[in-house]
Amino acid sequence: MKPDIRPADLVSDRAELVGIIGRNLPTESSERRFDWLYLEGPHGKGHAWVARNSQSSVVGLAALFPRRFSFAGQEFVACVLGDFCFDEKYRSLGPAIELQRTCLRAAMASPFGAFYDFPSAKMMAVYKRIGIAQTGSVVRWAKLIRANHYIQSRVSFPRLAQGLSFIANIPLSWHRWRSDLGDYEMSIQEELCGPEFTALDVKVRKGSGLRTVRSAEYLNWRYKANPRTAHNIVAARKAGALVGYAVITSEGALTSIADLCAPVENAERLVPHLLTAVAEYAHQDPKTTTISMVSGVSHPWSEIFRKAGFRQRDHSPLVAYADKSSATPGPLPGSNWYLMQGERDS
Amino acid sequence: MTTKPTIEARVREFMLKTVPQVGKRGLKDEEKWLESGLLDSFGILDLVQFLEAEFGIHVSDDELIPESFESLRAVVNFVETKLPPIVLPKQEST
Q1: ipTM for the whole complex
Q2: Which CATH number fits domain A140-317: 3.30.70.1450, 3.40.50.1000, 3.40.630.30, 3.30.390.50?
Q3: If you measure CA to CA, which chain B residue comes closest to A91?
Q4: What is the pTM of this model?
Q5: In this structure, are residues A83 and A111 in contact, taking their beta carbons and an 8 Å threshold?
Q6: Which residues are CB-contacts of B5 (< 8 A; sequence separation ≥ 6)?
Q7: pLDDT for position A154
Q8: Which of A46, A152, A293, B77 fits as disulfide partner to A257, beta carbons 3.0 to 4.6 Å?
Protein backbone atom coordinates (compact mmCIF):
# COMPACT_ATOMS: atom_id res chain seq x y z
CA MET A 1 0.00 0.00 0.00
CA LYS A 2 1.21 3.50 -0.86
CA PRO A 3 2.21 5.55 2.21
CA ASP A 4 -0.14 8.42 3.00
CA ILE A 5 1.52 11.86 2.92
CA ARG A 6 0.27 14.67 5.15
CA PRO A 7 1.54 17.58 7.29
CA ALA A 8 3.01 16.60 10.64
CA ASP A 9 1.83 18.01 13.95
CA LEU A 10 5.07 19.10 15.63
CA VAL A 11 3.60 18.58 19.10
CA SER A 12 1.60 15.35 18.88
CA ASP A 13 3.96 13.70 16.33
CA ARG A 14 7.11 14.80 18.18
CA ALA A 15 8.15 11.37 19.49
CA GLU A 16 7.62 9.70 16.10
CA LEU A 17 9.58 12.42 14.31
CA VAL A 18 12.49 12.15 16.75
CA GLY A 19 12.33 8.37 16.20
CA ILE A 20 12.48 8.42 12.39
CA ILE A 21 15.35 10.94 12.39
CA GLY A 22 17.27 8.74 14.83
CA ARG A 23 16.65 5.62 12.71
CA ASN A 24 17.70 7.12 9.40
CA LEU A 25 20.02 10.12 9.68
CA PRO A 26 23.59 10.22 10.98
CA THR A 27 22.81 13.27 13.10
CA GLU A 28 22.23 12.63 16.81
CA SER A 29 18.47 12.74 17.27
CA SER A 30 16.99 13.82 20.57
CA GLU A 31 13.94 15.65 21.86
CA ARG A 32 16.23 18.55 22.76
CA ARG A 33 17.50 18.82 19.17
CA PHE A 34 13.94 18.56 17.86
CA ASP A 35 12.63 21.33 20.12
CA TRP A 36 15.60 23.56 19.28
CA LEU A 37 15.41 23.09 15.51
CA TYR A 38 11.67 22.68 14.92
CA LEU A 39 10.08 24.78 17.65
CA GLU A 40 12.46 27.41 19.00
CA GLY A 41 13.99 29.05 15.90
CA PRO A 42 13.61 32.86 16.14
CA HIS A 43 12.72 33.10 12.44
CA GLY A 44 9.72 30.80 12.92
CA LYS A 45 8.79 27.20 13.65
CA GLY A 46 9.76 24.40 11.29
CA HIS A 47 7.24 22.68 9.02
CA ALA A 48 7.24 18.94 8.44
CA TRP A 49 5.43 16.43 6.26
CA VAL A 50 5.29 12.75 7.00
CA ALA A 51 4.54 9.58 5.09
CA ARG A 52 2.51 7.06 7.11
CA ASN A 53 2.09 3.36 6.40
CA SER A 54 -1.17 1.40 6.67
CA GLN A 55 -0.69 1.10 10.46
CA SER A 56 -0.43 4.92 10.58
CA SER A 57 3.22 4.81 11.68
CA VAL A 58 5.58 7.51 10.38
CA VAL A 59 7.88 5.97 7.75
CA GLY A 60 9.09 9.11 5.94
CA LEU A 61 9.85 12.74 6.79
CA ALA A 62 10.61 15.98 4.92
CA ALA A 63 11.03 19.30 6.73
CA LEU A 64 11.81 22.95 6.17
CA PHE A 65 12.96 25.68 8.53
CA PRO A 66 12.30 29.41 8.03
CA ARG A 67 15.19 31.85 7.64
CA ARG A 68 14.93 35.62 7.37
CA PHE A 69 17.16 37.01 4.62
CA SER A 70 18.04 40.44 3.42
CA PHE A 71 18.82 41.32 -0.18
CA ALA A 72 19.07 44.73 -1.82
CA GLY A 73 17.72 46.40 1.28
CA GLN A 74 14.64 44.16 1.44
CA GLU A 75 13.89 41.46 3.97
CA PHE A 76 12.13 38.26 3.02
CA VAL A 77 11.54 34.84 4.53
CA ALA A 78 13.25 31.87 2.91
CA CYS A 79 13.50 28.32 4.16
CA VAL A 80 16.22 25.73 4.35
CA LEU A 81 15.23 22.12 3.77
CA GLY A 82 16.42 19.31 5.99
CA ASP A 83 15.93 15.98 7.74
CA PHE A 84 14.62 14.24 4.60
CA CYS A 85 14.49 10.51 5.32
CA PHE A 86 12.55 7.30 4.72
CA ASP A 87 12.57 4.03 6.63
CA GLU A 88 14.45 1.42 4.60
CA LYS A 89 11.45 -0.86 4.11
CA TYR A 90 9.48 1.98 2.49
CA ARG A 91 12.23 3.43 0.32
CA SER A 92 10.37 2.83 -2.90
CA LEU A 93 10.85 5.78 -5.14
CA GLY A 94 7.38 7.16 -5.81
CA PRO A 95 6.49 8.05 -2.19
CA ALA A 96 9.92 9.59 -1.55
CA ILE A 97 9.51 11.85 -4.58
CA GLU A 98 5.94 12.70 -3.66
CA LEU A 99 7.01 13.62 -0.13
CA GLN A 100 9.82 15.90 -1.34
CA ARG A 101 7.52 17.42 -3.97
CA THR A 102 4.96 18.22 -1.24
CA CYS A 103 7.64 19.87 0.88
CA LEU A 104 8.94 21.91 -2.09
CA ARG A 105 5.46 23.09 -2.99
CA ALA A 106 5.22 24.58 0.51
CA ALA A 107 8.76 25.95 0.27
CA MET A 108 7.77 27.94 -2.83
CA ALA A 109 4.45 29.17 -1.43
CA SER A 110 3.61 32.06 0.85
CA PRO A 111 5.11 33.17 3.21
CA PHE A 112 8.36 31.85 1.76
CA GLY A 113 10.10 33.80 -0.99
CA ALA A 114 12.85 31.28 -1.55
CA PHE A 115 14.24 27.92 -0.50
CA TYR A 116 17.65 26.31 -0.45
CA ASP A 117 19.09 22.90 0.33
CA PHE A 118 22.44 21.18 0.55
CA PRO A 119 21.57 17.82 -1.04
CA SER A 120 24.05 14.99 -1.29
CA ALA A 121 25.16 14.11 -4.82
CA LYS A 122 22.78 11.13 -4.62
CA MET A 123 19.84 13.23 -3.42
CA MET A 124 20.28 15.33 -6.58
CA ALA A 125 18.63 12.41 -8.43
CA VAL A 126 15.41 13.18 -6.53
CA TYR A 127 15.67 16.89 -7.41
CA LYS A 128 16.31 16.09 -11.07
CA ARG A 129 13.25 13.87 -11.08
CA ILE A 130 11.18 16.75 -9.69
CA GLY A 131 12.62 19.00 -12.41
CA ILE A 132 14.88 21.10 -10.19
CA ALA A 133 18.47 21.61 -11.31
CA GLN A 134 21.56 22.17 -9.20
CA THR A 135 22.08 25.94 -8.99
CA GLY A 136 25.53 26.09 -7.44
CA SER A 137 28.02 24.40 -5.17
CA VAL A 138 29.43 24.74 -1.73
CA VAL A 139 33.12 24.21 -1.19
CA ARG A 140 35.06 23.07 1.83
CA TRP A 141 38.15 25.18 2.47
CA ALA A 142 41.04 23.90 4.57
CA LYS A 143 44.16 25.42 6.01
CA LEU A 144 46.84 23.25 7.63
CA ILE A 145 48.31 24.74 10.81
CA ARG A 146 50.30 21.69 11.96
CA ALA A 147 51.78 18.91 9.83
CA ASN A 148 52.19 16.34 12.64
CA HIS A 149 49.37 13.98 11.58
CA TYR A 150 50.31 14.17 7.91
CA ILE A 151 53.98 13.37 8.55
CA GLN A 152 53.34 10.72 11.23
CA SER A 153 51.09 8.82 8.82
CA ARG A 154 53.90 8.68 6.25
CA VAL A 155 57.11 8.38 8.31
CA SER A 156 57.35 5.25 10.45
CA PHE A 157 60.28 6.36 12.68
CA PRO A 158 58.77 8.43 15.52
CA ARG A 159 61.88 10.55 16.21
CA LEU A 160 62.32 11.34 12.52
CA ALA A 161 58.61 12.17 12.20
CA GLN A 162 58.89 14.47 15.23
CA GLY A 163 61.89 16.30 13.73
CA LEU A 164 60.27 16.64 10.30
CA SER A 165 57.04 17.88 11.91
CA PHE A 166 58.97 20.53 13.83
CA ILE A 167 60.55 21.80 10.61
CA ALA A 168 57.30 21.63 8.60
CA ASN A 169 55.37 23.44 11.31
CA ILE A 170 57.64 26.51 11.14
CA PRO A 171 56.21 27.96 7.90
CA LEU A 172 52.72 26.85 8.92
CA SER A 173 52.99 29.04 12.01
CA TRP A 174 53.77 32.19 10.04
CA HIS A 175 50.60 33.82 11.30
CA ARG A 176 51.97 33.69 14.85
CA TRP A 177 54.99 35.84 13.94
CA ARG A 178 53.01 38.34 11.97
CA SER A 179 49.87 38.10 14.05
CA ASP A 180 49.15 41.75 13.55
CA LEU A 181 45.58 42.24 14.69
CA GLY A 182 45.76 45.91 13.78
CA ASP A 183 43.83 48.06 16.17
CA TYR A 184 41.23 45.37 16.72
CA GLU A 185 40.70 43.75 20.09
CA MET A 186 39.79 40.08 19.68
CA SER A 187 38.06 38.16 22.45
CA ILE A 188 35.84 35.13 22.95
CA GLN A 189 32.24 36.20 23.53
CA GLU A 190 31.54 34.31 26.74
CA GLU A 191 28.14 35.89 27.48
CA LEU A 192 25.04 35.71 25.32
CA CYS A 193 25.11 38.05 22.33
CA GLY A 194 23.58 41.41 23.23
CA PRO A 195 22.07 44.37 21.33
CA GLU A 196 25.49 45.32 19.86
CA PHE A 197 25.26 42.18 17.64
CA THR A 198 21.84 43.23 16.36
CA ALA A 199 23.17 46.75 15.72
CA LEU A 200 26.12 45.30 13.75
CA ASP A 201 23.73 43.13 11.72
CA VAL A 202 21.62 46.17 10.80
CA LYS A 203 24.80 47.92 9.60
CA VAL A 204 26.07 44.88 7.69
CA ARG A 205 22.75 44.42 5.90
CA LYS A 206 23.04 47.91 4.42
CA GLY A 207 25.86 46.50 2.26
CA SER A 208 25.29 44.58 -0.95
CA GLY A 209 24.65 40.86 -1.10
CA LEU A 210 22.31 38.21 0.19
CA ARG A 211 22.60 37.48 3.91
CA THR A 212 20.78 35.70 6.69
CA VAL A 213 19.44 38.17 9.25
CA ARG A 214 21.80 37.59 12.18
CA SER A 215 20.25 39.39 15.11
CA ALA A 216 21.49 38.72 18.65
CA GLU A 217 18.41 36.53 19.16
CA TYR A 218 19.28 34.46 16.08
CA LEU A 219 22.96 34.10 17.08
CA ASN A 220 22.03 33.04 20.61
CA TRP A 221 19.67 30.40 19.24
CA ARG A 222 21.82 29.21 16.33
CA TYR A 223 25.16 29.04 18.17
CA LYS A 224 24.86 29.55 21.92
CA ALA A 225 21.82 27.29 22.48
CA ASN A 226 22.74 24.71 19.84
CA PRO A 227 22.36 21.31 21.55
CA ARG A 228 24.46 19.46 18.98
CA THR A 229 27.65 21.49 18.82
CA ALA A 230 29.42 23.90 21.15
CA HIS A 231 30.33 27.12 19.35
CA ASN A 232 32.65 29.95 20.29
CA ILE A 233 32.28 33.46 18.95
CA VAL A 234 35.52 35.36 18.33
CA ALA A 235 34.40 38.99 18.56
CA ALA A 236 36.40 41.83 17.00
CA ARG A 237 36.05 45.23 18.64
CA LYS A 238 37.53 48.59 17.85
CA ALA A 239 37.64 51.17 20.63
CA GLY A 240 35.21 48.93 22.50
CA ALA A 241 32.61 48.74 19.69
CA LEU A 242 31.77 45.43 17.99
CA VAL A 243 32.89 45.49 14.33
CA GLY A 244 32.76 41.81 13.31
CA TYR A 245 33.00 38.22 14.48
CA ALA A 246 33.83 34.64 13.55
CA VAL A 247 31.91 31.64 14.90
CA ILE A 248 33.98 28.51 15.41
CA THR A 249 33.65 24.91 16.59
CA SER A 250 36.38 22.43 17.51
CA GLU A 251 36.34 18.66 17.27
CA GLY A 252 39.42 16.46 17.42
CA ALA A 253 42.12 17.83 15.13
CA LEU A 254 39.73 20.20 13.37
CA THR A 255 38.62 23.74 14.10
CA SER A 256 35.77 24.80 11.81
CA ILE A 257 34.57 28.30 11.01
CA ALA A 258 30.77 28.23 10.89
CA ASP A 259 30.18 31.92 10.30
CA LEU A 260 31.97 35.16 9.51
CA CYS A 261 30.53 38.63 9.82
CA ALA A 262 32.04 41.97 8.79
CA PRO A 263 30.67 45.06 7.05
CA VAL A 264 31.37 45.01 3.30
CA GLU A 265 33.33 48.27 3.35
CA ASN A 266 35.63 46.91 6.05
CA ALA A 267 35.91 43.27 4.94
CA GLU A 268 39.24 43.50 3.08
CA ARG A 269 40.89 44.67 6.27
CA LEU A 270 38.89 42.95 9.01
CA VAL A 271 38.30 39.43 7.65
CA PRO A 272 42.06 38.58 7.40
CA HIS A 273 42.45 39.71 11.02
CA LEU A 274 39.48 37.55 12.07
CA LEU A 275 41.02 34.55 10.27
CA THR A 276 44.34 35.24 12.02
CA ALA A 277 42.56 35.37 15.37
CA VAL A 278 40.86 32.03 14.61
CA ALA A 279 44.23 30.50 13.70
CA GLU A 280 45.72 31.83 16.92
CA TYR A 281 42.82 30.35 18.90
CA ALA A 282 43.13 26.99 17.09
CA HIS A 283 46.87 26.92 17.71
CA GLN A 284 46.34 27.00 21.47
CA ASP A 285 45.06 23.41 21.30
CA PRO A 286 48.04 21.15 20.49
CA LYS A 287 45.69 18.58 18.90
CA THR A 288 44.45 20.96 16.21
CA THR A 289 46.05 20.46 12.82
CA THR A 290 43.56 22.02 10.40
CA ILE A 291 41.13 24.92 10.16
CA SER A 292 38.26 24.34 7.77
CA MET A 293 35.15 26.15 6.63
CA VAL A 294 32.35 25.68 4.14
CA SER A 295 31.19 28.51 1.90
CA GLY A 296 29.29 29.06 -1.31
CA VAL A 297 31.71 28.45 -4.18
CA SER A 298 31.45 32.08 -5.24
CA HIS A 299 31.36 33.67 -1.79
CA PRO A 300 32.37 37.35 -2.17
CA TRP A 301 35.30 36.80 0.23
CA SER A 302 36.80 33.77 -1.59
CA GLU A 303 39.88 35.73 -2.59
CA ILE A 304 40.42 36.84 1.01
CA PHE A 305 40.19 33.17 2.11
CA ARG A 306 42.77 32.20 -0.51
CA LYS A 307 45.17 34.97 0.50
CA ALA A 308 44.82 33.82 4.13
CA GLY A 309 46.17 30.40 3.17
CA PHE A 310 42.91 28.46 2.78
CA ARG A 311 42.70 26.05 -0.14
CA GLN A 312 39.56 24.67 -1.79
CA ARG A 313 38.95 20.96 -1.21
CA ASP A 314 35.77 19.03 -2.04
CA HIS A 315 32.65 20.52 -3.60
CA SER A 316 29.03 19.47 -3.02
CA PRO A 317 25.73 20.53 -4.63
CA LEU A 318 23.59 23.49 -3.69
CA VAL A 319 19.98 23.95 -4.76
CA ALA A 320 18.58 27.45 -4.19
CA TYR A 321 15.54 29.05 -5.83
CA ALA A 322 13.49 32.14 -5.22
CA ASP A 323 9.87 32.72 -6.04
CA LYS A 324 9.41 35.09 -8.98
CA SER A 325 7.48 37.55 -6.84
CA SER A 326 10.19 37.80 -4.18
CA ALA A 327 13.10 40.21 -4.01
CA THR A 328 15.44 37.70 -5.65
CA PRO A 329 13.70 36.15 -8.65
CA GLY A 330 14.99 32.89 -10.13
CA PRO A 331 18.00 31.04 -8.79
CA LEU A 332 19.39 32.76 -5.70
CA PRO A 333 22.37 34.95 -6.66
CA GLY A 334 25.26 32.64 -5.81
CA SER A 335 27.95 35.19 -6.63
CA ASN A 336 26.65 37.65 -4.08
CA TRP A 337 25.58 35.29 -1.33
CA TYR A 338 27.50 35.26 1.95
CA LEU A 339 26.70 31.57 2.34
CA MET A 340 28.51 29.59 5.03
CA GLN A 341 28.01 26.49 7.17
CA GLY A 342 25.89 28.59 9.56
CA GLU A 343 23.14 28.72 6.93
CA ARG A 344 22.72 24.96 7.19
CA ASP A 345 20.67 23.44 9.98
CA SER A 346 20.63 19.68 9.53
CA MET B 1 13.16 -0.17 -34.39
CA THR B 2 13.89 -0.73 -30.69
CA THR B 3 14.10 -4.44 -30.02
CA LYS B 4 14.65 -6.33 -26.79
CA PRO B 5 18.37 -6.94 -27.55
CA THR B 6 18.81 -3.23 -28.33
CA ILE B 7 17.23 -2.21 -25.00
CA GLU B 8 19.39 -4.72 -23.16
CA ALA B 9 22.58 -3.52 -24.88
CA ARG B 10 21.87 0.13 -24.06
CA VAL B 11 21.01 -0.58 -20.41
CA ARG B 12 24.19 -2.68 -20.10
CA GLU B 13 26.19 0.18 -21.56
CA PHE B 14 24.61 2.64 -19.08
CA MET B 15 25.34 0.37 -16.13
CA LEU B 16 28.92 -0.18 -17.29
CA LYS B 17 29.45 3.56 -17.58
CA THR B 18 27.88 4.55 -14.26
CA VAL B 19 28.43 1.61 -11.87
CA PRO B 20 32.15 0.83 -11.43
CA GLN B 21 31.53 -2.70 -10.04
CA VAL B 22 29.82 -3.75 -13.29
CA GLY B 23 33.10 -3.33 -15.18
CA LYS B 24 34.84 -5.67 -12.74
CA ARG B 25 32.26 -8.43 -12.33
CA GLY B 26 29.85 -8.10 -15.27
CA LEU B 27 26.07 -8.00 -15.25
CA LYS B 28 23.86 -11.09 -15.02
CA ASP B 29 20.32 -11.01 -16.42
CA GLU B 30 18.63 -12.06 -13.18
CA GLU B 31 20.90 -10.36 -10.62
CA LYS B 32 18.87 -8.22 -8.21
CA TRP B 33 20.61 -4.86 -8.25
CA LEU B 34 19.13 -3.49 -5.02
CA GLU B 35 19.86 -6.67 -3.08
CA SER B 36 23.42 -7.01 -4.40
CA GLY B 37 24.12 -3.34 -3.75
CA LEU B 38 24.85 -2.46 -7.40
CA LEU B 39 22.18 0.25 -7.24
CA ASP B 40 20.32 2.01 -4.46
CA SER B 41 17.04 3.90 -4.77
CA PHE B 42 18.87 7.08 -5.84
CA GLY B 43 20.76 5.09 -8.51
CA ILE B 44 17.46 3.81 -9.83
CA LEU B 45 16.34 7.41 -10.35
CA ASP B 46 19.44 8.02 -12.49
CA LEU B 47 18.60 4.88 -14.46
CA VAL B 48 15.00 6.03 -14.95
CA GLN B 49 16.23 9.40 -16.20
CA PHE B 50 18.46 7.59 -18.68
CA LEU B 51 15.61 5.34 -19.87
CA GLU B 52 13.32 8.34 -20.40
CA ALA B 53 15.93 10.18 -22.44
CA GLU B 54 17.23 7.16 -24.36
CA PHE B 55 13.91 5.57 -25.34
CA GLY B 56 11.63 8.61 -25.30
CA ILE B 57 9.33 7.09 -22.70
CA HIS B 58 7.67 8.69 -19.68
CA VAL B 59 7.79 6.97 -16.30
CA SER B 60 5.19 8.32 -13.88
CA ASP B 61 5.84 8.55 -10.12
CA ASP B 62 3.35 5.70 -9.58
CA GLU B 63 5.43 3.46 -11.82
CA LEU B 64 8.56 4.07 -9.77
CA ILE B 65 8.43 0.79 -7.91
CA PRO B 66 11.64 -1.14 -7.23
CA GLU B 67 10.30 -4.36 -8.84
CA SER B 68 10.34 -2.73 -12.29
CA PHE B 69 14.00 -1.77 -12.02
CA GLU B 70 15.47 -4.51 -9.85
CA SER B 71 17.33 -6.44 -12.56
CA LEU B 72 18.40 -6.22 -16.19
CA ARG B 73 15.53 -8.50 -17.23
CA ALA B 74 12.97 -6.44 -15.27
CA VAL B 75 14.20 -3.18 -16.82
CA VAL B 76 14.14 -4.59 -20.36
CA ASN B 77 10.59 -5.89 -19.84
CA PHE B 78 9.46 -2.58 -18.35
CA VAL B 79 10.88 -0.52 -21.23
CA GLU B 80 9.31 -2.89 -23.74
CA THR B 81 5.85 -2.35 -22.24
CA LYS B 82 6.33 1.43 -22.43
CA LEU B 83 7.33 1.52 -26.10
CA PRO B 84 4.61 1.98 -28.73
CA PRO B 85 3.53 -1.31 -30.33
CA ILE B 86 5.16 -2.16 -33.61
CA VAL B 87 2.66 -1.91 -36.47
CA LEU B 88 3.54 -4.10 -39.40
CA PRO B 89 2.80 -2.66 -42.85
CA LYS B 90 -0.20 -4.19 -44.59
CA GLN B 91 0.70 -6.75 -47.21
CA GLU B 92 -0.56 -5.76 -50.63
CA SER B 93 -2.51 -8.47 -52.45
CA THR B 94 -1.06 -9.49 -55.76
Answers
A1: 0.70
A2: 3.40.630.30
A3: B41
A4: 0.83
A5: no
A6: none
A7: 79
A8: A293
